[in-house]
Amino acid sequence: MHPNAFLRTLWRAETVDQVFVAMSFDSRFSSRYEEVIRPAIEDQMIAGYKLIAHRVDNSKTGDSILTEIINGISHARLVLADVSIVDEGRYTQEPVRNGNVMYEVGVALACRTPSEVLLIRDDSKKFLFDVSTIPHIQIDFSAPDAAILALRIAIEDRIKETSYVQDARIQMLASSLTTDELRVLQLLSSLEQDYGWDFSIPEVGLLSYPDARGISGLLQKGCAKSMAINPETRAVLYALTPFGFALARVVEKLLRKVVIEAKEGGDGKPDNPVI
Q1: How much is the average pLDDT of 40-56?
Q2: Which residue from 212, 225, 214 is spatially nearest to 179, judged by alpha carbons?
Q3: Is 52 helix (H, G, I), strand (E, B) or coil?
């Protein structure tokens, strides 16, 4: 599946406790994955998370492997790419970095913030200009213990730096909310986390059409979840996910900004109160 099609149809806002690892499948790189990268990610909790290293199986082909790559990049807590030199240019003698890995880095930078992408390499040669500003560190894989420690610290720094509120996905979702989704979002954000709301109409037990549209939209975007059944009405209770609460905070700030700008304009009313 093409990345653009995936992001428009299958992308969900929730992240999973994984580190997506993009690296060469050349046998020369196998030991560094097993002896350094995987232990650095999995052996201890990092920034309060028990993480799993996710490396796409190179036995898959065609559309299936591309879909898994994009899915992993979109939903992992962090994208880690080993962009070490794999060869020297046959004609130019310039260092060559794995093309597949660089493609995955490009996809990651298209849908994640820079702090959610960490590049590592084992060389100090000329680096690619287009990605030179992305956080990257040099790792000496010949000293596994020191390499594990350095990599774990770098991963923890990236995760701590990453904030849901700064996430580009939240900004994108905030600008696409419908009136019904916005109303439901604001209502659910007034609850404590893990408390649900019964939207059913008393004595009817059904949702109103606007409520149903708002809930459905937030569920599809990964911002809301169904929790339990109200024992009195037998209706489903709904609550926000952590991503939904972060989205609500962004929406609140944006709405406040719209109101302030409208008041400064003189009429006291925003032109369009819906984000």
Answers
A1: 93
A2: 214
A3: strand
